[in-house]
Amino acid sequence: MKKVILAIGTIFTLFLGLFTIMTIVNRNNNRLTSIMGFTSVVSAGTSMTPEIKENSFLLVHKQKSYEVGDIITFSNNEGIIVTHRIKTIKDGKYITKGDANNFDDGYEVKNEDIYGKVIYKCENKGFINHILVFIIIIAAVAMIGLFFRS
User: Fold this and answer.
1) What are 38's strand-pairing partners?
2) Whole-model pTM?
């Protein structure tokens, strides 16, 4: 039982570590890195307030299809990473809009430009909170490992 708990903790920590590294890398370029369809990103603006606040950590997952009302992260026609809500679907393309904006984005988002749907958000804590949580989890797993070895 001890080995199972330690193995689960180790696997969880590895995945969390990968997402932390992805977040660091993603903050420094205009392409996002995905692992098994999951992408992490930190929101950069206020166009999605109050739903998503600036500097919130977002976990995004690629879906087979998207619906009106889904919040998606995508690369716009200028190559900028954007997280907005789908307002309408027209001929298989998505029209998006930031919740705080008074207008649609003005372009159609193609499925291949979408990184995925926002499935988790860590409000107003973003990048720094994500790293702190990662450190706490590593420490907890290490303590559990030491406890079960004794």
Assistant:
1) 35, 61
2) 0.69
